[in-house]
Structure formats: C-alpha cells, structure tokens
Amino acid sequence: MPIAAIRTHRFSAPLHTPFVTSLRRATSVDSLLVEVIDSDGRSGFGEAPQVWAVTGANMAGSQAAVEEMIGPRLIGRDPDDLNANCAIVAKAVVGNEAAKAAVDVALHDLAARRLGIPLPRLLGAPAITAATSSAAANSAADGDGAGAGPGRGVVVATDVTLAAGAAEALGAAAKERVAEGFRVLKVKVGTDAEGDLARIRAVCDAVGGAAKVRLDANQGWTPREAIRIINGISEEGLPVEFVEQPVAAKDLDGLAHVSQRVDIPIMADESVFGLRDLVEVIRRRAADLVNVKLAKCGGLGVARTLLVLAESHGLGTCVGSMMEGPVGLGAAASLVAAYPTSVVSDLDAAWWLSESPLQGGLRYINGTVVLPDTPGLGIDL
Ligand SMILES: [Mg+2]
Known about the structure:
Elements: E1 3-20, E2 25-38, E3 43-49, H1 59-70, H2 82-92, H3 97-115, H4 119-122, H5 132-141, E4 155-157, E5 160-162, H6 167-179, E6 184-188, H7 193-207, E7 212-216, H8 223-236, E8 240-244, H9 252-259, E9 266-268, H10 275-283, E10 289-292, H11 294-297, H12 300-312, E11 316-319, H13 326-338, E12 359-360, E13 363-365, E14 368-370, E15 379-380
Parallel strand pairs: 5-6, 6-7, 7-8, 8-9, 9-10, 10-11
Antiparallel strand pairs: 1-2, 2-3, 4-14, 12-15, 13-14
Helix pairs in contact: 1-3, 2-3, 6-7, 7-8, 8-9, 10-12
C-alpha cells in the first residue's frame, strides 16, 4: 500500500479557439501530468501547466523537479499520510510551484480514491450541491448521458473568457457565450490601451445586462493608462464587476496607486503567487480581491490558506487557473466546492479544449463546471 511509483506524462491538446491575452497567444494546452501510484495499483493525477509567459513554468523543468527532487522523497511513504506528504512536496525544491501543485493534487486525488470519495468531499464539500439536479437534467436533455449515476456531481459556477480582439468580434463572442449559458464574462484587455474602452463598451452593449462583465488586463496597462480607462468605464456607467491585474506584476506601488484612484474593485492575479505576496498586497492595500491559482501557489493547502487570509483581511476571493486541462481544472473546481469564493471563480480553461486528452473528469454544462460523483477527480489516462 505505500507509494510505489511516480510517473510523468507530457500532453498537448489543441484549443477550439485561440486564447489571446496581453501576454501571449495560445492555441494548445501543454501540461505535464503527474501520476502517483500506490502498491495496490491505484493512481492519483495532478497537472503542471506550461506557462512560459506568466510563471515561467515549463514541462522540462517541471518534469525534472518531479522526477529528480520531489518524487524520490515520496516513494515508500504511506499515501494516507496526506498532510505530511504535502509538506515534503512543499519543501522539496525552491520555486517550481506548478510541479509542486501537480504532485500535491495527485496525492490528494490518490487519497480520495483510496477512500472511495470524490476530491471535493475529501476537501470538505457536500456530496452533491443543490444545483446539480437541474444542471444534470439540462445536460441529459442535451443527450450527453448525464442526469443519473456518473452525470451527478458537485456543480461550481464559472466565468468564461473572451480572448483579446477587435470590439465587433468581442461583442459577437459575448452574445455567443451568453447564449451558451455563461452568466459571467471575463474580457481580456490590455493589448492596446487606446482601443480598450471601446472594446469594453461593445461587450457591455452586446450582453445588455444578461451577464456580468469583468476585465483582465494581464499587466498590459501603465498605472496612468489604467486610471484613465477605469475611470472612463465609471463615467460611462458601464457595469464592470472588477478589473484584474491592470499593471505589471512586480509594481505593487503602481497597483496600489490605481486601486486608490478608481471606484471599480481591483483584483491581484500575477502580483500574488504565495502567502508572502498576499501579505504584501494586504499591507499596502494594493488590491480589493485576489485570484488564487494552484500553479502559482503550489498546492491545495496553500491555496486554502490564501483564501482564508484574504477573507480575514476583507479582500474578495476568486480561484482561477492557467490554460490547463481537466486535471488542473478539476482540482481548482474541487477547491471552490469546498471553500466557496466571494465572486464567481475563473474555471473555464478546460472548456477551451477541442477534446479532452483524458478519460472522465469535469464537464461544462450551462456556464457551470460539473465535477463527477466518482472517486478522486474521476480521471484516467
Ligand atoms: Mg488573470
């Protein structure tokens, strides 16, 4: 029953639509899958997404961290000694948060499978959430086989991203996403400060109140541009929920400067990886909300602590992800199921895949993530 082996698998899965932000243009999800195997032959899975432009995490580096440093420390250990195992992962190397998160999630997935319960239950969520029955019924009506048995599960709301683009195309995409059932749209801006206000106006006009609109500039504005654009949004009365990461990640003074001069709430994303970063944002009153991601902070335990720390200081919370597949998204959605965030979370990344590279796992139904009611993440190779 001890941990017998740790394997890694590289995968690349195409997107149905290019994902464009001020930092990058992606046409595929490229991730390292980590598999932790016990001596009974049960496997748990975790995912380390490759994100050169945001975290610098890459498959070769994550693979080396898992195979050479983290994995050997876990072989032979009791897989049910979960917290101690995760502490070993956290201390095995400096940095490499994506690799650590992948092993941490795989350990949680394996522990949940050994107990025969879904990952959200292991984290403390109820078995089935109230909205499940209607989502499952809708999905059954769509003919995808849900509605009973494996179609049941925990439901978590998500936003959906509109990739950066021209105003007219953004308006059309916004209407499509609302028609598909999404009720929160996240618009990628920051590629061109001069045109951003027109883009935001086009999306707000297109949805006409049928969905919430939030923005993510991905560090694309200077503090001066951010203040001008965000105050322009307020002056026009456009209903924007919040603006994520308006300025450079390391420019906390700039982030605080913007936050103090606009009415629309500001969310820190790339500025906050781990606990020390969040403490600094709190200390400087640099943001109103924080976006917590496993691939930035290194695991489910740290992510939970970030959420609690933010709440305890009056900051709003959101859980997001990198462009990653059903394993990483399943873990992030399981975290939200157990520890609800103050705003609808940002869990759409796996929706962008043209097809899943794996068996089972979460599905997207009517603007929600439905996690399977099967042990662990419910995913197999
Ligand atoms: Mg972001």
